Amino acid sequence: MVVLLAVSSVCALSLGTPYVPPHRLVAAVLEGDTTLAGIVVSELRLPRLLLALVAGACLGAAGLVLQEALRNPLAVPEMLGVSSGAALGVAAPLVLAFSLPAAVQPLPAIGGAALGGGLTLLVAGIGRSPSALLLTGAAVAAALQAALLVLMVMADQLDLQLIYRYLLGSLSARTWDDVTGLWPWLLVAVPALVLCAPVLSVLRLGDEDAEALGVRAQRARLAALAIAVVLIAPVTAVCGPVAWVGFLAPHLSRWFAPAAGAVRWLPWSAAWGAVVVAVADVPARLALAPVETPAGAWTALLGVPAGVALMRSGGRRRTARHGQAASVGAREQPSELRKTAAGVADEVAPAAASHHAHPGEPGPGGPTSPALGTIGTEDPR
Predict the structure, then answer these.
(1) pLDDT in tens, 50-97
(2) Which of 34-48, 146-160, 205-219, 351-365 has the lowest mean pLDDT?
(3) Which residues pair with 363 in a beta bridge?
(4) How many CA atoms does the CB half-sphere of 362 hold within 13 Å?
(5) Which residues pair with 366 in a beta bridge?
(6) Could you give the CA distance from residue 156 to residue 42 in angstroms, rounded to a whole number?
(7) Calpha distance 69→223 (Å, rounded)
(8) Which of 58-72, 123-137, 161-175, 330-344 has the highest mean pLDDT?
């Protein structure tokens, strides 16, 4: 992960037009280089890289929160109506010509994300099995996307191009203002995320066990959804719905640490989400240069097959562990039986020898009974 992060960061800051050698990056960033290369690195490429890292970390952490709270590895923002609702909240003011200050631009995205997630929980029923949320979330997401298509029909040509590019998830033309606009929301989400992590480990046991341990499962699940909304919506308001990062990053963290719990998976999932978006943004900017492609297209193209492969690999590893444990138990069981049988034989042998040596003395079965003839029985007379 460190190697991928370092290589992608150097490529993001160096490659492009103009090309900046890696040994000049420190001078361009720290010493305030006033050349064209220094301005491009410090004012365009560096905020874009930081935004990719922050957005990926938020999406990765939100994906793990949803998967652990709902106990389903397929519970991702794209399948629960959260991302579709946030996109609808961003597109509606643009099409309807509502001007909003920069400070409150994430609010429509947060409202739309809360609307999508709340509708999913309301329609599916909070108390039902978490597996039912996936089909319900897909239906809610389809309904919100239909509403978004209606808005796109109403938009003019310029707004339609902006919405289309936004829906694919792009980091193009992002500045320091976009990065600094995320910090107030992160100051709210990160402490709540730290407090939520131990509860996720309890929810993983199931609703009945969580209730027995004193955790109200329905309220905890709603709180987890609220934290995921606060993490996803500001990122979606700035970058658009960068697809399937919340699906791939949690599976990467589980694959590298299968025996850990939600408390350890959470920071690793955030780190892997940052790496995934940073790596995907490099070909998004350079593959078809001078034309930029959306980063969300690359994360969806690479994230879905990689996530499915990780799920299959993790399932095979769990099956192998269970099979190994079963084989070890099967090997240990006959040995225990042999030990038990040997112990019984050792106890019976002295009694039998004693009876044959002194047939007239009282034995365990009576004065003249065989040593093993009536042990544990009574004379019917």
Answers:
(1) 999 999 999 999 999 999 988 888 888 888 888 889 889 888 888 887
(2) 351-365
(3) 366
(4) 1
(5) 363
(6) 35
(7) 9
(8) 58-72
* Nearest one of 74, 61, 68, 90 to 229, comparing CA atoms: 61
Which tokens in the block code for residue 246?
Answer: 């919340």
Q: Which amino acid is at 334?
A: P
Cis (ω within 30 of 0) for the bond into 93? no
**Which residue is associated with the tokens 């930029």?**
292
Cβ partners under 8 Å of residue 5, min gap 6: 274, 275, 278
Contact by Cβ (8 Å): 263, 210: no
Q: Which helix (H) or strand (E) holds 223?
A: helix 217-239
Dihedral (C-alpha) 157, 159, 163, 169: value to the nearest 10 degrees?
110
Copy the structure tokens of residue 244: 């399937």
The three-point CA angle 246-149-288 to 5° equals: 60
Question: Cα–Cα distance between 325 and 178 in angstroms, integer?
Answer: 52
Q: Interhelix angle for 82-95 vs 217-239, to 10°?
A: 40
Please give the C-alpha separations between residue 313 and each of 68, 149, 164, 222, 251, in angstroms, as whole numbers: 19, 38, 35, 31, 10
Quickly tell me which residue has 């160096």 as its tokens.
Answer: 14
Query: CA-to-CA distance for 263 and 266, rounded, in angstroms?
Result: 6
Cβ-contact 363, 351 below 8 angstroms: yes
Q: How confident is the model at residue 46 (pLDDT cuts 50, 70, 90)?
A: very high
Mean pLDDT of the chain: 79
